[in-house]
Write a structure and sequence with these properties.
The complex is a heterodimer of chains A (393) and B (208). Chain A has 393 residues and is of the alpha/beta class. Chain A folds into two domains: 17-285, Bira Bifunctional Protein, Domain 2 (BirA Bifunctional Protein, domain 2, 2-Layer Sandwich); 298-385, Rossmann fold (3-Layer(aba) Sandwich), CATH 3.40.50. Helices cover 38% and strands 18% of the residues of chain A. Chain A is built from 15 helices and 14 strands. In chain A, the strands form two sheets. Chain A has an eight-stranded mixed sheet with strand order 1-2-3-8-7-6-4-5. Chain A has a five-stranded mixed sheet with strand order 10-9-11-12-13. In chain A, helix 1 (17-36) runs antiparallel to helix 3 (99-114) and helix 3 crosses helix 10. Chain B has a six-stranded mixed sheet, sandwiched between helices. In chain B, strands 8-7-9-6-10 form a five-stranded mixed sheet. The chains are: A alpha/beta (393), B alpha/beta (208). The A-B interface holds A 364, 366, 369, 371, 373, 375-376, 379, 382-384, 386-393 and B 114-117, 127, 130-131, 133-141, 153-154, 156.
Chain lengths: 393, 208
Amino acid sequence: MKKIQPTILKEMCNFLPQRMMRWNAVMEIIRKTFEQFGYSPYDLTVPLARFIATNYQKLSFPFKCYQIQRVWRTEKQQKGSLREFYQCNVDIIGSKSLICEAEMAKIIVSVFEKLGLPNIIIKVNSRSLMNVILKSFGVNQNESPTVIRLINKITKIGKKEVISKLKTMGIKNAESIVSTLIPEKTNRKTLEKISKYRPDELKEFLSYCNDLGIPEKNLQIDPTVTRGINYYTGLIFEVVTKEDDFGFICAGGRYDNLCSLFSNKNFSGVGISFKFEQIMFLLEQLKIVNVRSFPSQVLVTIFDKNTIKEALQIYRKLIEANIATEIYFEPDKLSKQFRFADKKGIPFVVIQGPKERERQEITIKQLKNGKQKTIPINQIVSYFSNYYEAENN
Amino acid sequence: MKRKTIRIAVQKEGRLKKDSVEYLQSLGLEFSKEDVRKLIVSCKNAPVEILYVRHSDIPQYVQYGAVDFGIVGANLLYEKDFKVKVIKQFDFGKCSLVIAVPLNSPIQETKDLEGERIATSYPNSLRKFLEQQKISASIIEIKGSVEIAPLLGLADAICDLTQTGKTLRENKLKPIKTLFDSKALLIESPFKSKEKTEFTNKFLAKDL
């Protein structure tokens, strides 16, 4: 019979176990942080707007929710875009306070710190402020979306190129527009430069961030940040790393017209979206592995047919003590069982032969160096649960 | 309610107590040493209270500002990262945190500790050391009398404080590595107050 050739669909994922473990571990860090800040999950089978519009009477506001879920999109494929990816969002619906935005910044800093990326930069801008600035330079409403799109490319194509393109469009004051919008070295200087446009929102936000202990180095007022032209209405965020090629690893902002399509009620919300795949690629590229990348810590071997019962009891003890443990399923040659553990990256095997059994002892073997030690069987849980694993070892 | 008195915490019982009390007296503070069961003793000549508490609790009291000053062993601060200010190092309370093994142990040097069981009351200090040395081991936490752990078959080595080495010898143990040397410290809480400044100027300044 002709066999089916197993392939995966374009732009969809198929991970081997080690990589999947890493992904799950990172997802768990993000999920725990969201919950620590008081967000609850909701089911993302419908868009948030529709969900809120349908259920607003059952929800208490401000409604704080998160979703971490795999989604599939049939969007036209662009380079680097996936058709299968993780949504990883938090939103606050129903509060206009800028404390919400500061809370988002705190969540961002907390998540990335836990992931081993403490030096991320949250670029912040105000949509309304940008409109005021553009208007003051005589850019009209029809022109501004194109102008904004061009300005957004400053980091990619450079200042000169943007100015010349603006000029071709017939925009006057192109140089002044660009030099007004490019951020200065410090937030204080940037705010000074644009002070006549009254950046009050940004100032209030920064002061809340300061109170929440968000380090200055993680925040940059950047008036060139433009984010989703039609959607966002207030402060907007883009999170980048010093390794700029990766683009945004998180982004979001304030939206005021979320449910206008579905309801007459006015809901103001703030939301951010973690770009899960980009974050994972970044962590993998930078070789940041502060997550356990092997499945189990211990393999319980089976010495021979007559000791299956004992092996199962040891296995049970370890599993019940929450130590990641596996048991080998056959009384194969010990060397074969060791090779199995080695291939899977399991660092320890435990062996109880007839001698150990008689003395109520167990032998623990470290596979990386072959070192063996025998301890009383009663201490096995304590040995592993108190084990300190030194890094780079 | 805001406290008007200055509080100084010293060890209730143990190797630092005598020297700590003598130091406070040398500053000119007058207080009774008679009532040994009393936990709080007021000074006669200043708005100062001496608190006799568990040694290991002192850094926490000072960190939270429940007391203003404390006298503790450096080993305690090394064990946990307390947010306190060290304002003086004393010449008393000298001891070392060491790793020791039974006299007949095959463990001879630091690298032999890989994969072994080490009993200690100082798990964080030990972990820091293992981290520096890139050694993995099982850390068996025991609150006191760590020296008998190898004899009981609970551990292959210990990590404990030693002053003269006498207790180690009595339990047939020999040190193979010193993690660090410790002495008594005067520590101060991170909170400011008018009373504390006055106390510092009057009693401590000449001595710091």
